[in-house]
Specification:
Blueprint: H1 2-18, E1 24-30, H2 37-48, E2 53-59, E3 64-70, H3 76-85, H4 97-101
Antiparallel strand pairs: 1-3, 2-3
Domain HMA: 25-91
InterPro entries: Cu-bd, HMA_dom, HMA_dom_sf
GO molecular function, one term: copper ion binding
């Protein structure tokens, strides 16, 4: 009986060491240049390709991106830079000018002749 108990105890402690969870962080990033559902789709698809990103949601009306990510694979600055590389302003990081030029008209800022048409 004692041998079985100790065998179980050793087996249990060895498995619990492997079951460590990876640290997940949530960031809310201001994206003031997001205009429409196409912007939402572009940003979400772009960020989902980043290793370590586990969840992405763009709130168009709030002009905010919520991202959950594994801290051992990426960080908030890398995510902001990725948003900027997709052509959108991300908090204090301005959009990459070349990527911004390639955005559809509806995704560009109103001051650049873009935005959703007014009905």
């Amino acid at each position: 009986m004692k041998k079985t108990f100790f065998a179980f105890l050793i087996l249990f402690t060895s498995f619990t060491g492997f079951a460590q969870t990876k640290p997940v962080q949530t960031a809310k990033i201001s994206v003031p240049s997001v205009q429409c559902e196409m912007c939402k789709t572009r940003i979400e698809e772009y960020l989902k390709r980043i290793d370590g990103v586990t969840f992405v949601n763009v709130a168009v009306k709030k002009k905010e991106v919520t991202v959950k990510y594994l801290t051992d694979r990426t960080n908030e600055e890398m995510i902001k830079t990725s948003i900027a590389n997709a052509g959108y302003d991300a908090a204090e990081i301005k959009a990459n000018p070349d990527s911004y030029k390639m955005l559809p008209k509806c995704c560009k800022k109103p001051e650049d002749g873009g935005g959703m048409p007014k009905h």
